[in-house]
Amino acid sequence: MAELLQLRNIQKSFPGVKALDGVSFTVRAGEVHALMGENGAGKSTLIKVMTGVHTLDSGEILLEGKPIQIKSPQDAVSQGISTVYQEVNLVPNLSLAENICLGRESAGFTGIKWKEVKERAERAMARLGLNVDVRRPLGSFSIAIQQMAAIARALDVDAKVLVLDEPTSSLDRDEVKQLFEAITKLKNEGMGIVFVTHFLDQVYAVSDHITVLRNGNNVGDAPIDQLPRLELVSMMIGRDASALESERVAKDPIQSTSFIETQDMGHSGSVEGVNFTIGSGEVLGLAGLLGSGRTETVRLLYGIDSANHGELKIDGRSASGHKTSKAIASGFGLCPEDRKLEGILPDLSVRENLTIVLQARQGWFRKLSRSKQDEIVQVFIDSLRIKTASPETPIKNLSGGNQQKVILARWLAANPRLLLLDEPTRGIDVGAKFEISALIEKLRKEGMAFVFVSSELEEVVRSCTKIAVMRDRKMVGMLTGEEASEEKVMSMIAGGEA
Amino acid sequence: MKAIFTKERLPIIATSLVCIAIYVAAGLKFEGFFSLRVFLNFLTDNAFLGITAVGVTFVILSGGIDLSVGSMVGCTGIMTAVLIQNKHLHPALAIATVLLFGLLLGCGHGLLIQKFNLPPFLVTLAGLFLARGLGLWISKESVQIDHPFFSALAGIKISLPNGASLPISAILFLVVLVAGIVLAKQTRFGRTVYAIGGNESSAMLMGLSVGKTKIWIYALSGFCSALAGVVYTIYTSSGNALSGTGLELDAIAAVVIGGTLLSGGYGSVFGSFLGVLILAMIQTAINFDGSLSSWWTRIAIGTLLLIFMLLQKGIEVSARRTSKKAGH
Ligand SMILES: Nc1ncnc2c1ncn2[C@@H]1O[C@H](COP(=O)(O)OP(=O)(O)OP(=O)(O)O)[C@@H](O)[C@H]1O
Ligand SMILES: [Mg+2]
Fold it and tell me: Ligand 1 pocket, A151 CB below 6 A?
């Protein structure tokens, strides 16, 4: 196969961090090349170097054998490298159609031809199996659709190389399937595709070749069939992976009285028929496809939307007129789905981001002492292996997965009575997912209650003591104990009565 | 109908309604307010404000601000007058010179903001002082322009029925307005401006030419304010270094009343036109009344601004709610 894009001996440092230390990477025409590594390994940095966001310190880039310089993302596009970055990088105020075509709209004498823009965007979305009103502003769509729009934009140009940095982090199975079909088609047309993900299944489903990075170094480079799963994980984390696969611990149910009870709770148009109880020491999983009503249920519990039928009882009292302020007063916490918009305070340090909720709960006038803050931060940096130059680094300089760990740690540190976790492990690597499960298990035993939303069924089954299954904005069943298995949940989601 | 009353259009609809309400109310109260001549005067008397506001709209849409436009009007006005009157330059050449000057000064703002990542507020505040100082240095006194070509230029007008007519300044205003609307809606430049206002770093990662566009935005604003300065000299047949004092604030008020968000990304050039019209009507109504003092204009504008800010906030909040709820 012909070498399409070659990166040789790339070095890139940020103040205090050597993000890439002599990395080489080759994409050939007609292959899907998976770029793997733990959070903070340097994957996104490598991608930003090859697409002109960062300038490299040293090393060279060759496109079809010729040395090239990539000065800006715009330059990268014009040289034939099309990219979807890790965070959705589109503009919320313009329509979905414009977001797909912006900068390359067909224009005539009277300016942009809007009809063509709309049709082109519809075609691009249809290629990914989506039929949505492309005239609506992008910001009004879910993150999943936004992510699909970003992918559609990248597919909409004639590129030689397509770079996808965690494109599937908020997609569910069907959308991933559509994406993979599109990728396979492009690959067969001779495009070179770079694919970053933390989902091993997906890697083995589409990739031809794997490059593994660890701490900014190449540690592996092999065709997919020569790199079995366990070996890949060991390579990524730099120690034996078999230790990770701790057997599923039997979840001894904690005897507790439930303090939350919902009866047929719902909100017209968003979710209905929600029936469950939550007690301390319980982890309630919400399983279902995207748009099945999981996030909406979380929003009802946290009082962002208020239920307009059914009932929500907290501590036996009916919580009519439930509001966020009341939820907080009852000791609830919410780790939101969209970290870029609702989670991080980009310019504040890791320490400040991590302790802010704890501080707020304590009251702003009773300042947490600095030594106390440092102590808490260190505990979480160690236990979740947050990779940061120092606790004082601005959080925006952390890799995506490490930012997510900080946001999660923020809530775990606050030790709420009930913690609502909406896709808390988005973009987090395999190793760290196990550590998070272990931490949740520990806090659960100490009496904390959780509501856990994740698209990854394996994770839901691993962490939860019981699972509410949602389908089409309705709760369709509750599984506990031995019943709560992946197969069972799957068949309920699919609609086959189990 | 559904397509017309979308969330994004609400500010512009609100502005239109306010505009019509004021017009009708004033028309019913004051005799002769409804005449075509009065309406054309809105355009003529506020042409320089309107032209400035078009440029400022682009700046604000991109999430920036331009405070220098008022002093630019004064500076380019006195420059035009002195070039024609004292330096005996042909008016056409003089006008071309000051327009180029405005464009370059705006470019300068843009370069500083873009290359050194300086805050637009401070860069253009410096521009405000520089342009005003330069104007006063050129001449403290107002300079009367007396040149046949210039008089001919000032005399150009389009005659309309009932003895009304559209003078050159109003014509220029309308031309700039239409050009601005087309630029914002129908060109890549315009759409990039919206994208920058929506999220600058995303726009960059999307491969848009953010840097170049930002420089052009300020150049455009500089050019518009220079043209406004020229229009002002035509309107008064003289140049005065102190004219246009505080105009930047009127322009910002017009843009915001017109529904453009100060944080960028949302709004329209046509909205700013309505904003200018509203300011013009309030002023005219107060003149018609005769018994109200001129500060009532300011009070009315202040009140309107407050109302519009609250309205925008309300829309923002409810839009955020529904966008979350729309979910999938
Ligand atoms: N702009 C920046 N300033 C300073 N340090 C940075 C910056 N961007 C990345 N880094 C550092 O470079 C290292 C590599 O980060 P990178 O984003 O490439 O990781 P990643 O492999 O993409 O991880 P993830 O799986 O979490 O997305 C991290 O230690 C990160 O803190
Ligand atoms: Mg990354």
Answer: no
Contact B191 A94 (CB under 8 A): yes
Pick the residue from chain B with its C-alpha nearest to A89. Answer: B202
pLDDT digits (tens, 9 = 90+) for B162-204: 778 899 999 999 999 999 999 999 999 999 999 999 999 899 9
Q: What are the structure tokens assigned to B150, written together?
A: 């210039």
- Give the ipTM: 0.85
Angle value at C-alpha A300, between A344 and A478, nearest 5 degrees: 110
CB contact under 8 A, B187 and A74: no
SS3 A275: strand
**A306-320 CB burial, b ≥16 within 10 A, e <16:** ebeebebbbeeeebe
B35 band by pLDDT with thresholds 50, 70 and 90: confident
Please classify residue A263 by burial: count the beta carbons closer than 10 Å to its beta carbon, then call 0-12 exposed, 13-18 middle and 19+ buried: middle
Contact of A467 with A451, CB cutoff 8 Å = no
Q: Which residues of B touch A145 (CB under 8 A)?
A: 328
Domain regions of chain B by residue span: 10-327
3-state secondary structure of A169: coil
Of the candidates A155, A209, A207, A201, which has an alpha carbon nearest to the alpha carbon of residue A182?
A: A155
Contacts of A295 in chain B (CB under 8 A): 327
Residue B15 neighbours by CB under 8 Å, 6+ apart: B257, B258, B259, B271, B274, B275, B278, B308
Architecture field, domain B10-327 = Orthogonal Bundle (1.10)
